[in-house]
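Journal club side-thread
Mid-discussion, someone asked how the predicted structure for our own chain would compare to the paper's figures. Pasting it here so we can look after the session.
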Amino acid sequence: MKLQLFIQEVNNAIEETSHQALQNMPRALRDVEALKQEASFLKDQMILVKEDIRKFEQETAQSMQVLVEIDEVKSRMQAAADALQEADKWSTLSADIEETFKTQDVATISAKLTSMQSSLAMLADTPDYSEKCVHLEALKNRLEALASPQIVAAFNSQSVEQAKLFVKVFVEIDRRPQLLTYYYKCHKGQLLCVWQELAQSETRLEHQLTEFYDTLLATWHTQLQWTNQVFQNASEIVTVLQIQTLSALVPSVPVYLSTALERASSEDKLSLLLDLHASTTHFAKSLEAAMLPHLGEMNLLKVTELVTAVAEPYQPYLLQYGELEEVFLLIQISAVPLERGELLDCVQELSQSVSKLFSLASGAVDRCLKLTDGLGACGLLKALKALFSKYVSDFSTTLQSIRKKCRLQDTPSASLFQEDWTAFQSCVRIIATCGELLRQCGDFEQQLSNRLLTSGSKYLSDAYSPRSLGAGPEPGGKVGARNPWQEYNYLQRGNPSLYGSLLDLLYTLKEKGTGNKQLLGEQRGALTRLNQQAYQLAFDSVFLPIQRQLHLVPKMEAWSSGSAGETMTDDLPTFSLSPLEYINYLSNVMDALGLQPSRALQQVSSLLRAKPEEVRQAAKGLPRRLSSAVIAMRCLDY
């Protein structure tokens, strides 16, 4: 029942709403029609307004042009009035400037000159403009001359307030570069005096250079702190001060180095260069560390110029590193004695020379990395090859001397031979020395390859190949990331072809591996030949006693007496109870060498025992070469 009532109410509401909508529809249509008419009327009005505006523009265009021309005339008249005013102001200032100069007040004079400079800018089109410019420059020169003693005093006393005043004055009159010239001159003069005193002192050369570089470094820190309070771009200003100082030294650093190295002996030249370069390297690294926080804000061209001023004096000597190292090594190895009067002393010296040789070679590698940072690797290899060649030559000469001492080349004599195994024992020690040479050579070559590749990897880019056009890694990609101290490369600047050879060497080591042992292959071959000579010497020392005993056989009494044959009959056993002396000796030698009688030795024994008339028969069936040698030794006809 309730649901029916609710439905009835809803139906009634819908019916009432529909009825009202039908009643309101005509009125809504009338409103829409009225709105449409008003919009049409507004459109017509807008067209009329637009037409009125067009007519107004046409009528007033000529008037506007006249107004523009009038405004231009007004502007020119204003400019002329300003020019006349500035001309009058210039005349007034020119008349008053002499009185102002009499006050000697730099700030007041500067203000007057600044006003005159502003006035002159307005008089650029006047006929006497150039004369006024000359006059103004002359006044600026007078102000600079007047202020110069005070400027020098301010810079020498490090007065911040006075310096700021002069910076303001010179900036206003457009003479900031001239003010910086005073600054550079003051501090450069002080540094040059320090250099003169050090150069004339009696201290060692490397100490002179170290002390001067310490002064330069201290100047960098103190002046950077002071100039930050006075100038803009303080780091660039102090960098230029360092550049100008290094360029103005008397004697200059190149002349200083040349004189020092010319006075040094050939033996001391390389060590002196190392000491001097170490002083410069320490200064460069310290200065780089001081610059690093400001490097992104600095003028990298000026930093590069400073790097060149510091490092360039050493370039000629670093390019000659290979020759200097070779001379030094040859002098050092020549001082290593291999030849001695006594045999045992010679053998001892040969044994001790191995450690000395590789100590020199390792020292050369250390010097190369310290002095050239690995860039002198090609020169190092050349010097090492010369070192090993000299050593092998001296070693070989000593072996020949030992051969003479042991009389291994003498013709056997008829004198009684004294048994002596000293030569053989010495040869065994020499063989051990040669083995140690080969072992240490292999180890050294491995270490050399590793150290060269480690130090030189920074020069070899990943994209490099021997056929590539690029000579090496590109400098840092981003400008802010560049570091001119790390980019300086004396070898690439001074000898590009040698730098290319270095990169090829590093590339080969990288591709084939450091265990390839290719750097000193020729030298290892020479050491191997030395080893063979030592073995030959040992062989000769063993068989010389046998040769001498065999040489004495034909001259023994048993072979020369007529009754000798009667004592040697076929009935004797192969080994008699009382063998002859030389047979005993040969047996002892064979026992000492661990040898057993062979068939050939038995054949020799039968030929030696045969009577002269039975030798031909005994030789039948034996090797012809063996029988001929024994019969010739017995001085018999075959």
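Post-session note: The chain has four domains: 1-174, 205-312, 319-462+486-555, 597-637.
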